[in-house]
Design brief:
Elements (H helix, E strand, L loop, with lengths): L1 H5 L6 H16 L12 H9 L2 H22 L5 H42 L10 E8 L10 E6 L4 E9 L3 H21 L3 H21 L8 E9 L5 E7 L5 E4 L2 E4 L11 H4 L6 E4 L5 E5 L1 H4 L11 H9 L7 H16 L7 E8 L17 E2 L1
Parallel strand pairs: 1-11
Antiparallel strand pairs: 1-10, 2-3, 3-4, 4-5, 5-8, 6-7, 6-9, 9-10
Helix pairs in contact: 2-3, 2-4, 3-4, 3-5, 4-5, 6-7
């Protein structure tokens, strides 16, 4: 169905080619080889590919072509063949109508999914919060285009705060949990000065979400791995990080590639089992260094042979190239590399977020403004 929707404006070429093939075979074979009845394939193929109007035209074409070809080469084997073509033509029109309704429903679902994606993964303005940022989302279900991965970049009175996470599970429950966490982050991270308090709000919000869905009949409790990073306005060159059991972010800069301390804290939603929330760490970050956070759609991507994608190796190859630390280029390069590695067959949703302190332009350069390449894709 997705291929038919994507190339629907050219789908009429397929039944037309089938018609030409049948005519060609009928003309190029001896009288003993009766192929004119193959015309039944023309409306049948059209029903699976074309809109009802085009299918009707092909059905009429097949019915009209049968006696014309029979009168030229005389290969029919009786009225049974003609009745077969008529039956195929008659049945193809309602079948095409049902298929068109199904295609319209899929397009409707695509629109709903796209709206949901824009709510959970909203676009980020350039230079938002005083940082350069770029994000990329690749859905394993390319038609739904939304899953349990989430991210956001937030401008707050305390400095930019960013989050990227991955809700356990698939489908609408995972999307619902991701939306709850993103909404909580947008409020708590803006109003709370202490990052540990923000972490506590995230834990509490997912707990309440799990209680709600349990009352609604959902048996499986959700948890989420995530990384929250704060760029304090009063401490340039430093960041505060809370890692809820997520893959440790990579840092790309002039000195090469390094990785932030591993996330040994419990995922969001499991703090009670782990004995508390993960600690907040304050770390150094150079002015020319870019932090890259990815979901497990990157780290667990495999090729046909089952070999995992090596993010570290790819970043080290990028490190020596000009502009490698630019957030936009970084997420584009890594996303493209993952798609190449998997051959376009993503087994899981994939989210990438690259962020760095926005460089301050020298006076007189570009009007003396501070800008960024921040974008969400």
């Amino acid at each position: 169905m997705p291929i038919l929707i994507r190339y629907g404006h050219r789908s009429w070429l397929v039944p037309l080619a089938v018609f030409a093939l049948v005519v060609g075979v009928d003309a190029g074979t001896p009288v003993s080889f009766a192929s004119v009845s193959w015309l039944v394939m023309v409306p049948v193929v059209a029903a699976g590919l074309c809109e009802p109007a085009a299918t009707t035209l092909f059905a009429l074409l097949a019915v009209a072509a049968y006696p014309a070809l029979d009168s030229i080469w005389g290969k029919s084997q009786g009225t049974e063949d003609f009745l077969l073509v008529i039956a195929g033509a008659v049945l193809s029109v309602p079948i095409s109508g049902f298929r068109a309704q199904a295609a319209a429903y899929v397009r409707h679902l695509q629109g709903v999914a796209e709206t949901t994606r824009q709510v959970v993964l909203r676009p980020v303005p350039p230079g938002w919060g005083g940082v350069d940022s770029a994000a990329r989302y690749l859905a394993a279900d390319v038609e739904a285009r939304v899953g349990g991965d989430f991210y956001d970049v937030l401008a707050t009175p305390f400095g930019a705060r960013v989050i990227l996470g991955d809700v356990q599970g698939k489908g609408l429950p995972a999307v619902s949990a991701a939306a709850a966490l993103v909404g909580c982050f947008r409020e708590a991270a803006f109003h709370e000065a202490d990052l540990a308090t923000v972490a506590a709000w995230l834990e509490e919000r997912l707990h309440r979400q799990n209680v709600l869905v349990e009352r609604l009949g959902e048996r499986e409790e959700r948890f989420a791995t995530a990384v929250v990073i704060w760029f304090p306005v009063d401490a340039p060159g430093e960041v505060e990080v809370v890692n809820f059991g997520h893959d440790s972010p990579h840092v790309l800069g002039p000195a090469g590639v390094r990785q932030l301390p591993p996330g040994d804290g419990a995922p969001i939603g499991l703090a009670q089992l782990a004995g508390g929330l993960p600690e907040v760490r304050r770390l150094r970050l150079g002015p020319d260094e870019t932090v890259l956070i990815v979901s497990d759609g990157v780290t667990e991507a495999r090729d046909r042979a089952g070999v995992f994608f090596s993010l570290r190796d790819h970043l080290e190859r990028l490190a020596g190239t000009p502009g490698a630390a630019d957030p936009g280029r970084l997420v584009d390069e890594v996303a493209a590399a993952v798609v190449r590695h998997t051959g376009g067959r993503l087994a899981d949703d994939t989210a990438l977020l690259a962020v760095r302190t926005a460089p301050v332009e020298a006076p007189g350069a570009g009007g003396g403004q501070t800008g960024g390449t921040g974008r969400s894709r």
